[in-house]
Amino acid sequence: MPGFKLKLKMNKFLALICFFFLGNGIVSAQTVDEIIDKHIAAIGGKDKLTAVNSVIMEGKVSAQGMEFPMTTTILNHKGFRLDFAVMGMNAWVIMRPDSGWSFMPFQGQTKPEPMPMDQIKEGIDQLDLSGHLLDYKGKGHTVEYLGLDDVEGTECHKLKVTSKSGKLTYYLIDPTSYYIVKTVSKQKFGGKEFDAETKFSNYKPVEGGLVFPYTVESMNGPVDMTKITVNSDIQESLFKP
Questions:
Q1: Which of 18, 9, 43, 61 lies closest to 226, judged by CA?
Q2: Is residue 25 part of a domain?
Q3: Which is nearest to 93 in space by CA: 77, 67, 70?
Q4: What is the model's pLDDT at position 219?
Q5: Confidence class of residue 5 from pLDDT cuts 50, 70 and 90?
Q6: d(CA 11, CA 19)
């Protein structure tokens, strides 16, 4: 019967369309999880990453023709502190989940000043030492695979990560090493939104088996790490002004 044959063809057509879209979604999800799994394995593995409670990164930053020492201390989900010296003056930035302060004497400050809440919200993800990608579903983040994108001549996997708070970050992952080589995040400052690009290189293993980038380049200048220490005993009092 012509009507029956036409209906059968339409059903097959609709089934193929559904398979195309749903199938692509399954492939995309598998691709995302496979890329993330390989990345996590490349930097030391899930067990080692979830066991990290603190990180201390010592290094030097180059900016505006000057070079000065800096130390970043992070206690997982509890506190972030950046200490550095400029022109012989010690400065610092402290951030906790619900508050933050900064002290910049070279800018004329005579006492610590509270950090605006919008800045705290922008930087709160830095308190998660396991990062966005590990257990991203459990943390409430979403990840989308956007294909390949060029990073200085290398076609890298590009992941679009939307955090639980709504912050958007793009991760570029080398398809050979599965290290993150670049991130581009949407930042807000002074009521304006801009793209903050950060590049990562010179990956090296640290004591305990994890692998960290020892060179980080951002809009503030390149930072070269000299020492990275994992799971030191850090007191929460360090994150008070």
A1: 61
A2: yes
A3: 70
A4: 80
A5: very low
A6: 12
Cβ partners under 8 Å of residue 190, min gap 6: none
Containing structural domain, residue 201: 6-239
Q: Which residue has the higher pLDDT, 206 or 4?
A: 206
Q: What is the pTM of this model?
A: 0.83
Residue 12 has pLDDT above 90, yes or no: no
On whether residue 51 sits in a domain, the answer given is: yes
In this structure, is residue 149 part of a structural domain?
A: yes
Specify whether the CB–CB gap between 67 and 226 falls below 8 A. Answer: no
Report the domain count for the chain.
1
Number of CB atoms found within 10 A of residue 150's CB: 10
| Amino acid type, 8 | L
Give the domain CATH number at 192.
2.50.20
**Per-residue pLDDT tens over the stretch 77-108:** 999 999 998 888 899 999 999 999 999 998 88
- Indicate the pairing of strand 66-75 with strand 221-230: unpaired
Return the sign of the alpha-carbon dihedral for residues 130, 39, 229, 163. negative
Tokens of 140: 């409430």
In a domain, 19, yes or no: yes
Q: Are 131 and 212 in contact (CB under 8 A)?
A: no
